[in-house]
Amino acid sequence: MLTRQTRAQKVFNAFNYAFMIVVCLLCLVPFIHILALSLSDNAAVSGGLVKLWPVRFTLEPYRYVLDRDAFWRAFGITLQRTLLGTLLNVMLVILLAYPLSKTKEKLRTRSLYVWMFFFTMLFNGGLIPSYILIKELGIMDTLWALVLPGAVTVFNVILMLNFFRQVPEEMEDAANIDGAGHWRTLWQIYVPVSMPAIATITLFCLVGHWNAWFDGLIFMRNADKYPLQSYLQTIVVEFNFQTMSATEAERLAKLNDRSVKSAQMLVAAVPILLVYPFLQRYFVSGIRLGSVKG
Amino acid sequence: MPSSIFSRLGGLLGNQEWVGFDNFDYVFSIPNIWQVVWNTLRIAVLKIVMGIIVPITFALLLNEIRLMLFKRVTQTIIYFPYFLSWVILSGILIDILSPSSGIANQFLGVFGIKPIYFLGENSWFPYVMVASDVWKTFGFNTIVYLAAITSIDPSLYEAAAADGAGRIRQTWHVTLPGMHMIIVLLMVLSLGTVLDAGFDQIFNMYSPQVLQSGDIIDTMVYRMGLLQAQYGPSTAVGLLKSLVSFILITISYWIAYRLFKYRLF
């Protein structure tokens, strides 16, 4: 509906656009600054000359990072955990959501199971019990410690089962009449029609595994086994409480090569940038999945 | 009584000794325990409040933008930080906010403001945590509210316009009431997170200087438990936190169900 704008509306619009641009800049400037730092000469960085554009352009920080064995080892571990972990997450979500989406008449113990899973969203034992559990299971220092504890993503199971419930029952009945059992119904009816939901959940699991750092930090006693984000954590932000005084921490921040840190953070963010277009496409539909129903 | 049952179970549970409530007594005798609880509540509640006000305001303003390309580009930019880990964002923030070399203080210096140690001063630290959390999440939440706005029946706006309501009154009388359900719902559900001040964020940005204002329950549990190997007291704190959170989440779901018939499954 187009109406002639009053003067006040014109002023408001001008301010609104300006405000949006400022907010966008607030979101972008930190990344641009880091990018500029990572592409600048060492002297320019320590002289504080670098703002939003590289000064005395160099790719040396990236060359240094990409030559580091530790970086690539951590990258490899993250790649493994992300692929294995996401695969496990998505398979378990589908396999759990299917039976739990059935009515009480078809699966009598349904509520019991749903409440059992739901309870884990409400209550958890805390840090130390989880730590002791992983230790006693003997999976410290293995990939399983990063993949198994979060294998069942209950929230996603609930999203998925709500999605499955919207699949018209006639489709399942038709499949049953044609002789399809549960497996065929699940893989040939439910999964294909739920692809948008599955894509959303897959992307969120991928991002979650890629970004996870704390589990690596506590479950890997050997720093050689750290995934990328845990490795980054130790070199980029860690403050060691036992050994470092306040002044030392500040000195270290000055001594450290900011360009190298910046370069490593940006390389670690590249995969997120790569899936970003897909995230954008699916994530509004994901919001609708999670949003309030009627 | 309980101790005898416990010792009979001893073989099952490993080499353990019944200590009653000793761990809890110890925890409550820690001098700054209440300071830590207060820090947690303060940061968490501020995050919840700002996490509602900022995205709603922004969604309302973004909704007024008529250039679709501009709107889409803005959305794309503002929710990017949401998908990066706190490790990376903290690394960036530590660099930017550094008092000696950070670009933020260089910028403030242009206006003659002396360098501020944002992450090293107790008067600043909690607010920097809240602000940076809003910075990370507001884009994502804006999209959530924007989705609620776009689902409002357009004929309501036409009716309001026919009755002579301008843009502001349309926002006040149509848009906000149309969003009220999701707003109240998200407020209610956030009740369960008042003890979660954001471990990932604070752990990556705090330092000994700001323990007084920035130490929260989760970071205390981590230091006590995994750095000082005080498993008992640390587990006690974790358990208390879990219990309180459990009660709060249960209440919040109950209210959400009573108000809106909201149920997860």
UniProtKB/TrEMBL annotation, chain A:
The keyword Cell membrane applies. Pfam families: BPD_transp_1. GO terms for cellular component: plasma membrane. InterPro entries: MetI-like, MetI-like_sf. It is a multi-pass membrane protein. The keyword Cell cycle does not apply. Residues 75-279 form the ABC transmembrane type-1 domain. CDD domains: TM_PBP2 (cd06261). PANTHER family: ABC TRANSPORTER PERMEASE PROTEIN MG189-RELATED-RELATED (PTHR43744), POLYGALACTURONAN_RHAMNOGALACTURONAN TRANSPORT SYSTEM PERMEASE PROTEIN YTCP (PTHR43744:SF9). It comes from Cohnella ginsengisoli. It is found in: Cell membrane. Keywords: Cell membrane, Membrane, Transmembrane, Transmembrane helix, Transport. Belongs to the binding-protein-dependent transport system permease family. One of its GO terms (biological process) is transmembrane transport. The chain crosses the membrane at residues 12-36, 82-100, 112-132, 144-164, 185-210, 262-279. This is Carbohydrate ABC transporter permease.
